[in-house]
Specification:
The complex is a heterodimer of chains A (495) and B (138). Chain A is 38% helix and 15% strand. Chain A has 20 helices and 15 strands. In chain A, the strands form three sheets. An eight-stranded parallel barrel of chain A has the order 5-6-7-8-9-11-14-15, surrounded by five helices. A five-stranded mixed β-sheet of chain A has the order 2-3-1-4-10. Chain A starts with a helix and ends in a 24-residue tail after the last helix. Mean pLDDT of chain A is 93; it is low at 3-11. With 138 residues, chain B is of the alpha+beta class. In chain B, a hairpin with a 6-residue loop joins strand 3 (79-86) and strand 4 (93-101). The longest helix of chain B is centred in the middle third of the chain and has 14 residues, at 61-74. The model of chain B has no long low-confidence stretch (mean pLDDT 96). The chains are: A alpha/beta (495), B alpha+beta (138). Chain A binds chain B through residues 167, 170-171, 174, 176-178, 207, 230, 233-234, 237-238, 240-246, 270-272, 362, 380, 383, 406, 428, 431-432, 435-436, 438-439, 442-444, 458, 461, and chain B through 1, 3-5, 7-12, 18, 21-22, 25-26, 41-44, 46, 83-84, 89-98, 108-111, 119-123, 125, 127.
């Protein structure tokens, strides 16, 4: 049990509320013996204090500035149940491999618990206004990063979550047992509506399940949005007739106002599209609004994480993408770009697997190697389909299936459209490679060691795959990741 | 044309041994196998006819292949697929589904375009074979 707050803090309430300035620790934001309640929201921050600021005080300051505190004592606290509403920093651990003797200055993991009543139901905007609202510019900290959050079931249940979810999406598309395949239309800017639709048709007919608008395709002078929607839907329907499969194209309805986004969404619906797309830069409230619209209109909702790299990539400051993943599952998107590990964009394999687990598991265990610091019960909330996109090609199919399993969309943009024999051939190469790898895995073959051989064998009866393997055989992006796990497995004595 | 529904339609047709290997994989995951058939290949036709109930308690992959072959005997020119169903909480859905029989000639689909307001078009996908009654299509 927790001791009463008054005994833990300064004891003397009249001294506590005397006008003036106290340390955050003295004001009651550092409670080392606090045991979080099952209904508390918990945040884990990575803190780099300024020289001379001790870690406990820095953690208390973060707790204070992200909940009830201001820089000075205010008597009006005494009109509230302020002991309950104060966030409580209750644990501070040095981050492994930081501090003296390492290349990185000393960092700390600070655990902070927040009472559930601090947050409005079903509002990511309200949650984030507290947790990341003011505190990231706070002077006593050199840098601050939100690493992970534990969201209590009572809070999770105030959100509706993904409008469709992995299970229902697969049933609607009638596609099971393998990752879905997609591609982003290239070049991302400049094509006319008719030429754009051509790319979509070729890729879908060749074997992809989805084609995608890029994040910055909205309604430019070379292609207005209605033109794009009309030609794309012709392409989608023609490809469905040519294959007998359900096909889709993520029509990006991102626009300058919500009114305009709804207008574009309505037109996509009228034309019979099964999916629409938005960009992360539209903001949390806009995402929640369009999620509600998607739910009302049986629409799959694709989210491109445009802009996230500005705050997720550097390890010492910003927000981990695992937290963005949690927020987006609550906010309610069906697809989200979550990294490839092997492609052209940032992503350490274990860290990326951590994002995937957050998006698509019913329950997350603590998994420090993958950056998951808390257990997280998703309370039946639908699952988000992660999207792996950016610099991947058919020759990596065994690695992708091995890393991510079946519930993922693998998107090969350049790896489809850049195929030497054309877009249809590029799409066919990817689909054959995928089906061959899944079939072999199910037969019990080891993808890590036998993958290249399985692909070569499949290419014997598929000329497009043979050409793809030859074209991109030496392409890989082996750069050191910046966002890496802090905890690595250690060999045990017996090992 | 070749209808490419199902998990392995871009690969050469699976042999009985290959079907059995996939069935064995599904059974190792604890999934229940079932066989379904149809002569309406519309991609939104989600209710194919059931060849008996899902084989919840069957642990022998050869038994499923036997059912596939019985179904092939009864409906040699129909589409037949094998489904693997996962009753785990959070899934409760099909996890693997692949075609194991198809007609020799697949005429495909017509695309009907109804021109409506502006330049909008309402699309209807029409399998050529469904102009004929069920059972007399292939």
């Amino acid at each position: 049990m927790n001791a009463p707050v008054s005994q833990r803090v300064v004891g003397n309430t009249s001294a506590r509320y005397k006008a003036g300035v106290l340390k955050y620790k003295q004001m009651g934001y550092w409670v080392p013996d606090y045991v979080p309640k099952s209904t508390d929201v918990i945040a884990l921050f990575r803190i780099t204090p300024q020289p001379g600021v001790d870690a406990d005080e820095a953690a208390a300051a973060v707790a204070g500035e992200s909940s009830t505190a201001t820089w000075t004592v205010v008597w009006t606290d005494r009109l509230t149940a302020c002991d309950e509403y104060r966030a409580k920093a209750y644990r501070v651990d040095p981050v492994p491999n930081t501090g003296p003797g390492t290349e990185t200055e000393q960092q700390y993991f600070a655990y902070i618990a927040y009472d559930i009543d601090l947050f409005e139901e079903g509002s990511i905007a309200n949650l984030t206004a507290s947790i990341i609202g003011n505190v990231f510019g706070f002077k006593p900290l050199k840098a601050l990063r939100l690493e992970d959050m534990r969201l209590p079931v009572a809070y999770v249940k105030t959100y509706k979550g993904p409008p469709t979810g992995i299970v229902v999406e697969r049933e609607r598309l009638d596609k099971f047992g393998r990752p879905l395949l997609g591609a982003t239309t290239k070049p991302k800017l400049g094509l006319s509506g008719k030429n754009y639709g051509r790319v979509v048709y070729e890729a879908l007919k060749g074997g992809l399940d989805f084609v995608k608008d890029d994040e910055n395709i909205n309604s430019q002078p070379f292609m207005h949005w209605r033109d794009r929607f009309l030609y794309v839907m012709e392409a989608v329907n023609r490809a469905q007739a040519a294959t007998g499969e359900v096909k889709g194209h993520y029509l990006n309805i991102t626009a300058g106002t919500m009114e305009e986004m709804y207008r574009r969404g309505e037109f996509a619906k009228e034309l019979g599209s099964c999916v629409v797309m938005i960009d992360l830069v539209i903001g949390y409230t806009a995402i929640q609004s369009i999620a509600g619209w998607a739910r009302d209109n049986d629409m799959i909702l694709h989210l491109h994480r445009a802009g996230h790299g500005t705050y997720t990539r550097q390890k010492n400051h910003g927000i981990s993408f695992r937290v963005i993943s949690k927020w987006m599952r609550l906010a309610g998107v069906d697809h989200i770009h979550a990294g490839t590990a092997v492609g052209k964009l940032e992503g350490d394999p274990l860290t990326v697997q951590g994002f995937y687990n957050v998006l698509r598991e019913p329950y997350n265990d603590v998994d420090l190697q993958r950056g998951l610091f808390f257990e997280q019960d998703w309370a039946g909330m639908r699952k988000v389909m992660p999207v792996a996109s950016g610099g991947i090609h058919a020759g990596q199919m065994h690695q992708l299936v091995d890393l991510f399993g079946d519930d993922v969309i693998l998107q090969f943009g350049g790896g489809t459209i850049g195929h030497p024999q054309g877009i249809q051939a590029g799409a066919t190469a990817n689909r054959v490679a995928l089906e061959a790898i899944v079939k072999a895995r199910n037969e019990g073959r080891d993808l890590k060691s036998e993958g290249p051989e399985i692909l070569t064998h499949a290419a014997r009866s598929c000329a497009p795959l043979e050409a793809a393997l030859e074209t991109w055989k030496n392409v890989s992006f082996n750069y050191t990741s910046t966002d890496t796990p802090d905890f690595v497995p250690t060999a045990t004595a017996s090992a | 044309m070749r209808i490419t529904q199902g998990t392995f339609s871009f690969l050469p047709d699976l042999s009985d041994a290959e079907i059995q290997a996939q069935v064995a994989y599904a059974q190792r995951q604890g999934w229940a196998l079932s066989v379904e058939y149809t002569d309406d290949p519309h991609p939104r036709n989600c209710f194919w006819e059931m060849w008996g109930l899902p084989m919840f308690d069957l642990k022998d992959p050869a038994g499923v292949v036997l059912e596939v072959n019985e179904c092939r005997k009864a409906f040699p020119r129909h589409y037949i697929k094998v489904n693997a169903f996962d009753a785990t909480r959070g899934f409760e859905t099909v996890r693997l589904s692949f075609i194991v029989n198809r007609p020799a000639d697949e005429p495909g689909f017509g695309l009907l375009r109804q021109e409506v307001q502006g330049r909008s078009i309402r699309y209807t996908l029409q399998p050529y074979v469904t102009a004929k009654p069920e059972g007399r299509r292939y």
